[in-house]
Every structure is written in C-alpha cells, then in structure tokens.
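User: I'm curious whether this sequence folds into something compact or stays loose and floppy. Could you predict its structure so I can see for myself?
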Amino acid sequence: MLKLFNSLTRKKEIFRPREGKKVKMFVCGPTCYDFSHIGHARTYIVFDMISKYLRERGYDVFYLQNITDVDDKIIDRAIEKKVFWRDLNRKFEKEYLKDMKALNINSVTKYARATEHIKEIISQVKKLLEKGFAYQIPELPKGAKGEDEGNLHRLKDGIYYDISKFKDYGKLSKRTVLQAEDAVSRIDEAKEKRNKGDFCLWKFSKPGEPKWKSPFGWGRPGWHIEDTAITEKYFGSRYDIHGGAKDLIFPHHEAEIAQMEAISGKKPTVKYWLHTGFLTVRGQKMAKSRGNFVTIKDFLKTHSARILRFFVLKTHYRSPIDYSEKEIEQVKRQLERIDEFIDKIKNLKNTKRVKEVNLFSTSAYASVFEEALEDDFNTPKAIAIIFDLVNRGNSLIAQNKLTRADARNILEFLKKIDKVFNFIFWEKPKEKIPGNILKLVKEREKYRQQKKWQKADEVRKRIKEIGYWIKDTKEGPKIKKLS
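Assistant: Here's the prediction. I'll summarize afterward.
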C-alpha cells in the first residue's frame, strides 16, 4: 500500500487518487532564461521516477509540467543580451528539453507554456476580482474600467491578490499572514499594496515589454497565476499530486492554493503535496544567485547521464544531497560494480547440473524492493536491495552455484527495476574508440604475448588514465569508456 509524505499535513498518508486508478500530477517546470542546473535536474529526475513507478503499478498518470516563458527574469536577460525576449526563451526551452531527453526523463505527458494560456489566466484574474480576493493598484474610480482610461493604465502597477481575504493563507508553509509580510514575490514591486505579502496576478505593461490585452488593461501574467490557470484547464479545480522543490512551498505554492481555492470554493485543491530537498554544495543550496551551480549541459560533458540519475536516486527525495566530485567518483565505482555483475551473469557458462538456486525468490528481493518504494519512495532502501543481490550473486558465481536459469531471473528482475530507475541498463550510442587508445591496446597485447606482465600493466594504467577500461576475454580485449 503506497504511502506518501504530504507536505500539507506533514505526515505520511495512504495514496488514494480522486478517480480510481487515474492520477493527475503537476510539477512546476522551468523559467527558461538560462541553462538548467543539476539542482533543477534533481527534482525532475525524482518526479520522472515517481511517474514511472505509478505507471508500473497500474495507474493511469497524466503528468503535466508548465513552462514559464514570460517573466521578469526572461525580460531582464533579453534586455541584457539585446535579443527579443521570445527568442531567448525559446532557445533555453529547447535546451531544457534536450537536457531532459539526455537524462532519460521521458514521462511528462504534456508541457504547457504560460503564454499559450493567457485566456485562462485572464479568466482566473477576473474571477478573483469579482469575488473580492483581488484589487488593482491604484484603485480605479467607481464605474471606471481599465480600457476606458486609454493609456493611463501604463501608470498603474497591476492586479494584486489580497492575502488577508483568504482565511487559510499559510496552511502549506505553516505561516500566518503577518509572517508573510516580509516575503516578496518575484514580480511584486508595488509600494501601495494592502499587505506586504500580497502578490501580483496581472502586471500592467511598460513600454517595450511583452503584453496581452485584458479587460483590466494591457499586461502580462504574474508568476503564481500561470500554474493554477494551466492546472485548472487540464485537471479542473482539484487534482491528486503537486510536486516541486521545497523552496517553492512559500510563496509560490502557498499562492497557488490561495488562488485556486478562492476561485473554486473547494478544498484542498491538491490532495498530496510532494517536495524535493535541496541539492547543496558544501551545505549551501545550489543556485544561480550564489554562483555555485553546475549546469546539466556542463555535467554531461564529463559524466554520463546515468551517473546523475543514480546520484539523485540513491538519496531519499526529501533529504538534502551535497554535491562533490568525490561523491560522483563513488557513484561511478558503484555503477561499475553493477555493470561487472551484469556482464558476469550475461556471460555465465555454468552448465553443471547443480541444484537450482532461487536467488531472490521474487518474494525476498522483489517484495522488499516494492515495500521500500511503497514507503514514500524510499529509494536508498530500494537501491540497497540491488547491491544485496549483486553481493549474493557474486558469492554464488564464485562457488559455481549460479545456474543460467538464475541468471535469467536476476536479469528480468533488474530490468523491471530499471523501468523505474533508468540507470542500470543504460543504452549509450556506440562510440568510436580513438586511434591512440587502439594503438595502446595493441601495444599491451604485444607485451602480454611476450609475457611482459609489468609492461602490460603499465599500459593498462595509461589507458585507464585517459578514461578507458579493458576487459580481457577469450575473444580478445574489450574496450569500454569509463562513465
């Protein structure tokens, strides 16, 4: 029975979707103005795993992710680079999707751009104004409408949400309205706000900025309203899972709750809130503002994508991970152990009629694996099962007690696991072995034939230093690039 830790209630709850086996899951997507870093990748790898696990368990998952393609950061960066804001955004959206493909994150059902949902955003802002949860800065004279004032709307700031009007404000982050006073949202500049924590729903345009026509004046959407407009369109006012990094709990996810529950009058708008912990560097959150980030693109120049997937999933999704090259080297060694074991069982030559060993019995390893993931996606425990299996398998191979039938069962079990994890059987395009490596391999073979073992070992070390690994087989040396 699957249990999830719900950030709203602060406890583990049995997972029961609203509509039988149908699961509606939304995860906050990127703001596309720069390359995504591996801190972002952590969240998207986790929810890719969650989505794949749910599907393996027979759930019909609609995984929705937004793309923020209009925002202050995008506009400011476009001005800085002297390019059109949309060109900048589309460039980095394309880079983001390339990164996701490289990481084998392929479980998202739909990516939804904010600018393609302006109609839905305007509709939600109108409803919030009509219900008294929103106000305009400065206040319009009685009976006046935004468009009646011609160009005067340019002097105004925008439409804001009055957090004091929503009684449940702060229930996700466990903050009161007063505690929210010092928080500033990404586009909340107005000094005339009723409460310091009020956030922008619709920002009136300044000359040269992207803008759309609305009943309350030309402008663009606030950050928080994008997500509720998109989720309402595809899911309605209530759905099952909302995911994201823990730094989005306040004010972003808090604002989403305030918007949607005020519009619909129904609660909770999201049944289960799931949040990933930070990816840190020397204990500090990885962030572009701190300059301590590694982009996904740069990481993949020197490391395999499977390394990042394994690095992320070996830690529980709610716990922090501290990134270092030392940790990445350990991950490489652990993956090499798995690879070597799989090579052994794929090439098992045991033909002796030994007693069939039921290595994992599907009720031992498989059931413990499932039990781990059913407990709020306890991936560290699930991954420990893999290494228990590797250790037991290697022991049986050493004793010549592992049959080919056992080997087939192990491979099937690992393939089933990898439908969720995607770091065990990593399909990489065949790479051309560089000429200098082939030359060294030939030199080493010459020394081996002459039984000059020390010289052969020295060449092997040189090959490894360059980044390649040699395995000696009956058919000759096999060359593999180190991950």
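Summary: Residues 146-155 have pLDDT under 50 and may be disordered. The chain is about 40% helix and 15% strand.
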